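Readers of this paper often ask what the protein records in our data store actually look like. Such a record has a labelled line for the sequence and another for the backbone structure tokens. Nothing more is needed to write down the fold, since each code stands for a local backbone conformation. The remainder of this section carries one protein's record, kept here as part of the documentation.
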Amino acid sequence: MFVLGITGASGTVYGVRLLELLLSAGKTVHVVVSPTAELVLSDELPGLKPNDDPYQFLLAAIEQARHQYGFRSQEPFDLDKLFVHHPEDYFAPISSGSFATEGMIVCPCTGSSLGAIASGVNQHLIHRAAEVHLKERRPLLLVLRETPLSGIHLRNLLTVTEAGGTILPAIPHFYGTPQTIADLVDSVVAKVLDQLRVPHPIENRWKK
């Protein structure tokens, strides 16, 4: 069981693709989409329409990303394993340390969310859930999508790392000779899944 927070950085497709592959791997996923991320998703996935139902909005985002980018692997998944929480719902189970998970990913992670997590300030449920994972010493991965980095960013990155988090910037690799944007997206998502020890179908290994 994993928690996924999608914040409003460019590159929301990373979070959508990660959600798809976690579900395809049979994992239960609790998702929180920040208000800004909803706007960015609608902008970066043309054809994705706003929906008052966040559950249906995420399913539509997965389908739109599949259509737009043509990912090589598009496996079916169990909808019963997807749980979506409102960012202001502090009564959600993921806001408590007593709710056991295998880890949390913020993907993509804005510089603002990085700062909130580093300082322990909860602006919404994503930040609270991240605070819980740090205090409970559970895996927390921040897929930072920000460049260039200021001294503030660098200090916050060190703070989160020293607290037990892992920083995994959204930097695709090119040694697999990517042919499409989907290949570049998958190279980052595969790194995240490797960190979580979740099997995946993406060919991302170094080969000589």
